[in-house]
Amino acid sequence: MTPYLDIQNLTKRFGARVLFEDISFSIAEGQKVGLIAQNGTGKSTLMSILTGHEGYESGSIIWRNDLRIGFLEQSPKFDPEESVLDACFNHQGNEEKVLRAKQILTQLHITDLQQPMGQLSGGQQKRVALANALLNDPDFLLLDEPTNHLDLEMIVWLEGYLSRSNLTLLMVTHDRYFLDHVCNIILELADNRIYSYRGNYTYYLDKRQERIDNQRAEIARANNLYRTELEWMRRMPQARGHKARYREDAFYELEAKAKQRIEDRQMRLKASNVYIGSKIFECQYVSKKFEDNGQEKVILDNFYYNFARFEKMGIVGNNGTGKSTFVKMLLGLTPSDSGKFDIGETVRFGYFSQEGLKFDENEKVIDVITDIADYIDLGGGRKMTASQFLNYFMIPPEEQHNYVYKLSGGERRKLYLCTVLMRNPNFLVLDEPTNDLDIQTLQVLEEYLQDFPGCVIIISHDRYFMDKVVDHLLVFEGNGVIKDFPGNYTQYREWKSLKSKEEETAQQNKVANTKVAKKKDYHHDDRRRMSYKEKREYEQLEKEIKALEKEKACIEEALSSGTLSVDEITEKSKRLPLVNDELDEKEMRWLELDELDH
């Protein structure tokens, strides 16, 4: 395979802190690579280096000549006054480029191309940025957290597009289903090194565990030998011969290996002192609507729901359907138009919002937590100190005395999460908690929520996370329509897919029955018979209609497949309305002839 990118001995430091040292890897044509690492270890920095936005200390980065490269930033920035179309590129009146942009934006559900970027939600802005990355039909695509701020429908679309396309890809994401379905190589950045696994995320998990088990065995052997060599070092005089000096040098290498640490988090944090009464909350016929760009937008329409004790609910739906507004009304942060939320007296909310917490930049990480509490009471006489709690959520002791301004975006989100949990609430309301968190922290949070003895509401686009934690869904379909589904997200998708197939079959049967009914109602006496020429036309029309229907289905399938180039999208989008018009015309003529006695 042709190498598109070759990285050799790359080193990056921030002051005395080493992010990665002498890392080497290459990406060949057609490979789809996922990069995994803990927050703060340099994932986004590496992406910035590859795009030329940031420098590095040493090493080499070699791109193949004449590659078209697309890049999606983690948090794209736009001029708020600029229109959607102008934000994509400076098209300078080029009709072909304008048409390309319209086709891609339409697939991403962005239809008002003259709307100012400042009026778009975070999810809509991320879609415009994604269109920008795809617009020039790149050979190599760099994606930094592509699923952040996208709704589930868009994530599924992007997953299908990338998995079916021939693009070469390097992406940073915490979405484990996305990694599983798209990537064929996983790179793990850990211990300032790169580990490569030739498979998807599930394969990576198995092989990573094998690597860690082997490392543990090596460290155990080194420790056994280290005790023997340490005794020799203490016994031997300082003046040593050449052979002894060689053994001394080997001792220090052995010592370094023996003192290696491998993260091994056996404990699960199970709190037993959280109490919540039998009455949680009752949403009593609540309605909410507001104006959005001059149009009335309905969020809730006389909605009733009685929340059960210990319930773990997920809320899903497209961006803009009112998920965050719903939880803000529950928390009393946004008023309802009518109806009310009747909340139990024992309920203590812990709220993790999308906006996050404003920190004092010059405060130390540990002080942010101890300002809330010095320890958390786990019940049964067990306590966990603030430092132990941070360590449990992957903020180790050496980083706890850093100042907040030194933290990466993911580390700040992690710290914010700890401030919510440290208050020991009995009802957690988490609005997009997975954004910017690394996979290891997500696994910790999943276990925490599975064992949590209170109530939980989660708004999230992370399907893997939702499947692990929630047992019930509220599906916001828009315009005040909310469906209650007893199951997790994957079960909901399977049910929805089955329902769609059943509805499609029912519609086909309805059309067939209508045609049969028409023939039964046919009055021979009142209609003339078809001429020989009309019979031939009728037979030919049936063949032509069948061929046009097949062509239409093929075009629609291709347009939704995500595998087409921009030129192919343009060509098929021009052809589709012509096929529809021709099909309508021939079906109308077929019906006219069908009315005749044949």
UniProtKB/TrEMBL annotation:
ATP-binding keyword on record: yes
Gene Ontology terms, MF aspect: ATP binding
Residues covered by the ABC transporter domain: 5-216, 281-503
Keywords attached to this entry: ATP-binding, Coiled coil, Nucleotide-binding
Disordered: region residues: 503-529
Domain of life: Bacteria
Protein name, UniProt field: ABC-F family ATP-binding cassette domain-containing protein
Native source species: Hallella faecis
